[in-house]
Amino acid sequence: MSDSYSLSFRQARICRIAAALFAAAALVRAVSVATSISLAATPALEVKCGQAGCHAIERPELLLPEKERAAIVARPAAMMRLAAYAHRPAVRAGIAAINVAQAAPFVLLMLCVAAATWRLGARGVDDLTRALPWLRRASLAALAAAIVPPLADSLRTMLVLPGTPGGASWYFAIDLGPFMMELLLAFAAFIVSWALAAGNRARRDMAEFV
């Protein structure tokens, strides 16, 4: 029994193109994070463009829960205090670290999928076996990409809360709808990788038997 790859030339070419797109997505996300760090990790940076050009506005109040944000906006002195607190080096460093931690699972996911699809499009011998470890890594990255962002959002909020009149406090907020959907997709990726691995082992065993 032959153990050669079964995708057509057209399918293999599509896999290679998809791999390039996934790698490009990882690069774009990494560049965006690097840009935010080069801007001193400004919390809630808002860019507005008009006839006079584009300019950035710092709006750290956007990181606050709705109740605290309304109280801050209504008090100019509190807004100034929050802005001064958000400019502290420790706060900016914390924002930068959170941004990197939040982006890392997505970048890793895109790179793992790119590596897997590139191997699937190589049309060599036993490429599926070489692609499967990358698919398993992608499923782990997908799980991290579902869990890390809501935690990162909560950490950013807790990082700027000491600059509010209410002071530091614990804060956790998760939108269960998108969170559960992303978790389900991550578990689906796990199941697919397990099924592919089991099918590939059966194929290899049958090839050795024949």
Describe this structure in words.
The protein is mainly alpha-helical and 210 residues long. The protein has one domain. Helix content is 71%, strand content 6%. The protein contains six helices and two strands. The chain has a two-stranded antiparallel ribbon with strand order 1-2. The longest helix has 34 residues.
State the oligomer.
single chain
* Inertia-based shape: elongated
Helix amount: over 70%
Radius of gyration: 23 Å
Q: Which range does the strand content fall in? A: 5-15%
How many strands? 2
Number of helices: 6
SSE topology string: HEEHHHHH
Number of domains: 1
The secondary-structure class comes to mainly alpha
Average pLDDT level = 80
**Largest sheet: number of strands, sense, barrel closure:** 2 strands, antiparallel
The strands making up the biggest β-sheet line up spatially as 1-2
How far apart the termini lie comes to: 6 Å
Sequence stretches where pLDDT stays below 50 over 5 or more residues: none
How is this fold's topology laid out?
Blueprint: H1 9-38, E1 45-50, E2 53-58, H2 66-73, H3 76-86, H4 89-120, H5 127-160, H6 176-209
Antiparallel strand pairs: 1-2
Helix pairs in contact: 1-4, 4-5, 5-6
